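thread: overnight batch results

M.L. [08:02]
morning all. the overnight job finished for the chain we discussed friday. pasting input first so we're all looking at the same thing
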Amino acid sequence: MNDNGYTSPPGWRGGDANAAYLDKNLKHIPVETYLNDTVRWQLLLRLIVSAFLASFLAFLPFFFFGLILLAGGSAKGFAAMIVLAYIASGVVFWVSLLGMRLVEPIAEWQVLLADRSGSLDSAYVSIAGTLARRYIPIGRAERVIATGLGRDQVRSRLVLTEGSCQAYVSVFSYGTSLYLGWQMWRSRRGYALIGRFVADLIASMLGRVSPERIMMRTEGVRAMREAVHAACREGLATAVDQVVVPITYAFPQGLLPPVQADHTRSAPTPGFNSTGAWGPPAGGTQAGGAQPWT
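M.L. [08:03]
and the structure it wrote out:
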C-alpha cells in the first residue's frame, strides 16, 4: 500500500516509461475493428475499380490504332484491333484483379530524441536483440540502407512479418537527433481478398462466423504489434540513457548488416537472405534482471 492508501499491483514499478505505458493499458477500450482481417465491400470495390481502370488503359492503344486504320479505309483492320483491344483489356483486368496488392495501414509510432544521434547503433541493436531473445514467432529481415546524404548517413531497419502483416522498425540520425519509430501494415493480393470475402460470406450464411472466430484470427497481429512496440520502447530507453549495447547482443558475428545502396527498397523481396528463426544469439541470456549484454 502506498502513501495515498492505494494498493499497487504486484510487480508495479512506478515512475518509469514501462510503468506509464502499462498504466494507460489498464483501462478497457472499444474493440479495434481496423485490426479485423474481414474484407469489406468497400475494399473489394476499390480493387475492382483499380482493375477496371487498368483494363481501360490497355484498351485505349488498340482502339486508337483501330481508328487510324478505319480512317485509312481498312474496316477489317479496325475490327481486328477492336477484338485485340477486348482481349488485352480482359487479360489485364483479371491479372490486375487477382494480382494487385492492396496495403491497409494498421498502426504507427515514432519519436525524435534531441542530441541522441550517437545512440543509433545501440538503439537498433537493442531492439533487434530484444525481439530475438523473447522468441517472438515472426519472420524478420535486417538491413542498413544508405540515404544518399553522406557516407555515414544510413537508416537501420527491421522488417518483421506475421502472415499478411508487416512491421517496419526504422532508426536513423536526423541531424544531431535520433529518429525511432515503427509502422505496421497489412498487405494482401486481390485473390486473397476475394477468397476471404467469399469464405466469410459462405460461413456467415451457414452461421459459422462469430466474434470469437474473428478475434482469434487477429490475436497474432495484436500480439505482434505490442511486441514490436515494447522492443522499441526499450530501444528508446537505451538511447535516452545513452547505454552502449554491444553488437553481439543481436548479431553474434559482431557485425551490423552491410549497407545497401538501394535505399528505395523496403519490403522483403524473394530471394533475400533474411535472418533465420528467432532465438537468442550464441551464449544465451543471463538470468536475474541484469542487462544481458553486461
